[in-house]
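Fill in residues.
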């Protein structure tokens, strides 16, 4: 993995496996994985990213994968990826409880509902 704006190569967090269908992204959970460990790793990565990003302007760019990438482009990419994954999770949740759109989930009081 490469952190282009910080100019460093970063080791993968999880070991990549040779998946029979060709996916090799290190996304397989280890048998000893816990929610606590996952949250700790996630928070560590957030702190590291914030520290790196604080040292750059939005339009500062650097070479990456044969082109140029700016912090603004990285933020846009991350927001898009995060939204895509949240959408996937929403589709899964929708299949579980039948709730769709911005209506509150079944059994959740209106005090937890804030319309957009």
């Amino acid at each position: 993995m490469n952190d282009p704006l910080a100019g460093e190569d970063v080791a993968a967090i999880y070991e990549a496996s040779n998946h029979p269908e060709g996916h090799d992204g290190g996304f397989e959970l280890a048998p000893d994985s816990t929610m606590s460990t996952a949250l700790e790793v996630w928070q560590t990565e957030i702190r590291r990213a914030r520290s790196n990003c604080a040292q750059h302007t939005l339009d500062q760019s650097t070479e990456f994968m044969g082109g140029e990438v700016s912090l603004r482009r990285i933020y846009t990419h991350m927001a898009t990826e995060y939204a895509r994954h949240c959408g996937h999770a929403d589709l899964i949740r929708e299949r579980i409880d039948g709730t769709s759109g911005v209506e509150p989930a079944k059994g959740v009081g209106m005090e937890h509902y804030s319309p957009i």
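Residues 35-97 form one domain.
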